[in-house]
Design a protein that fits this description.
Layout (H helix, E strand, L loop, with lengths): L1 E5 L4 H13 L4 E6 L19 E5 L5 H11 L3 E4 L6 H6 L2 H20 L4 E7 L26 H20 L3 E6 L1 E3 L8 H10 L4 E4 L5 E6 H14 L5 E4 L4 E3 H12 L6 E4 L14 H7 L7 H14 L1 H9 L5 H6 L3
Parallel strand pairs: 1-2, 1-4, 2-3, 4-5, 5-6, 6-10, 7-9, 8-12
Antiparallel strand pairs: 9-11
The structure holds nicotinamide-adenine-dinucleotide and 2'deoxy-thymidine-5'-diphospho-alpha-D-glucose (DAU).
Length: 339
């Protein structure tokens, strides 16, 4: 089986590549990634040693490049992680979100149709459902919760989901969609809450908490997300959406205090800053469908996952220090300039 993984130099895509190379050593994996600011080829340096893995630098919106790649490789499965993923950036500059997240998805699906891909899997997000109130803990997102987006990021992801379902119904493209809650774990880009707080705390820098820190996210260890995708591409039903979540809701301020405590730092580092515009209050995924139909459930307890994550950041300082310094951008040149 040959699998195209787009966006595999980012956080979840790279974790998925390592997971799949281990779980299915007979599969061939090709990663297509534009290496935007969020893509870091050094993350894949161990995978690049594996003869079953290949990296291609390219943009999913580049129709010619994508069609040539599909023609050449004859993929069985496509898993699309490639996206602009940071909500704050979408508020500053929405345009690239629409281009990559919507038009890029369309290009991949057009190529999947033309070259008879057996499964196109779209990595989506719980943010397509908008948010839930803080005072109704019994409410959760199910797959039938209406789409109701807040940010340009979530609107672009929801648009892509609708387009996927349209390609299934209109053209018969065998699509599946997963909508996952907040991931955490190794290789998480340090603009996102958990890695940013770990790295700032280590440097005794201030920890910027938006608003009052009361917003709630449902955290899932990234390996559990990878397991869910693996099970969906093998056993999921085409045309279906699967929610994936950790049953692990935490206020942002709780997360920040857990990190401070684990690193032995002072809560004086916490700085409450102006809230994010349109800030979603609470996300909570109900994963009953994927559990009942496909047998998946979140295996990693938050206490264990956050311990592993903090330990990973402590043991892999060069990885994030090169991001903070900007040095990581030179990795592609170093690896590929004379090939
Ligand atoms: P990320 O920002 O860490 O990585 C995105 C990757 O996509 C990068 O390697 C980047 O170079 C690549 N990319 C961006 N634009 C591209 C383009 N036009 N062509 C080719 N490659 C391009 O993102 P992530 O956090 O790993 O998220 C991956 C996917 O999962 C996204 O689709 C995101 O919406 C979704 N998601 C993320 C989370 C989360 O908590 N991080 C939760 C649910 C869903
Ligand atoms: O729910 C899934 C989504 O989770 C994914 O679709 C997105 O790609 C991913 O980025 C993530 O979105 P969030 O906006 O929830 O993640 P972020 O890490 O940016 O923020 C988490 C919470 O922490 C959010 O309520 C905003 C807050 N925050 C974030 C940052 C970066 C702060 O208080 N301070 C910060 O500095």
């Amino acid at each position: 089986m040959k699998v195209l993984v787009t966006g595999g130099a980012g956080f979840i895509g790279s974790n998925f590549i390592y997971y799949m190379l281990k779980k299915h050593p007979e599969y061939e994996l090709v990663c297509l990634d534009a290496l935007t600011y969020a893509g870091n080829l050094s993350t894949l340096k161990d995978a690049l040693q594996n003869p079953k893995f290949k990296f291609v630098k390219g943009d999913i919106t580049d129709r010619t490049l994508v069609f040539d790649l599909f023609k050449q490789e004859n993929f069985d499965v496509v898993v699309n992680f490639a996206a602009e993923s940071h909500v704050d950036r979408s508020i500053e500059n929405p345009e690239v979100f629409l281009k990559t997240n919507i038009l890029g998805t369309q290009v991949l699906m057009d190529a999947s149709l033309k070259y008879n891909v057996k499964r196109y899997h779209q990595i989506s997000t719980d943010e397509v459902y908008g948010d839930l109130p803080l005072d109704k803990p019994e409410l959760m997102f199910t797959e039938t919760t209406p789409i109701h987006t807040s940010s340009p990021y979530s609107a672009s992801k929801a648009s892509a989901d609708l387009l996927c379902l349209a390609y299934y119904r209109t053209f018969g493209l065998p699509v599946t969609i997963s909508r996952c809650s907040n991931n955490y774990g190794p290789y998480h880009f340090p603009e996102k809450l958990i890695p940013l707080m770990i790295i700032n705390a280590l440097a005794e820098k201030s920890l910027p908490v938006y608003g009052k820190g009361e917003n709630v996210r449902d955290w899932l260890y990234v390996e559990d997300h990878c397991k869910a995708i693996d099970v969906i591409i093998h056993k999921g039903k085409v045309g279906e959406v699967y929610n994936v979540g950790g049953h692990n809701e935490k206020k942002n301020i709780e997360i920040v205090k857990i990190i401070i405590d684990r690193l032995g730092k002072s809560e004086d580092l916490i700085t409450y800053v102006t809230d994010r515009k349109g800030h979603d209050l609470r996300y909570a995924i109900d994963p009953t469908k994927i559990t009942n139909e496909l047998g998946w459930y979140p295996e990693t307890k938050f206490e264990d996952g956050i311990e592993k994550t903090i330990k990973w950041y402590l043991e892999n300082k060069p990885w994030w220090q090169e991001i903070v310094s900007g040095e990581y951008k030179n990795y592609y040149e170093k690896m590929y300039s004379d090939r």
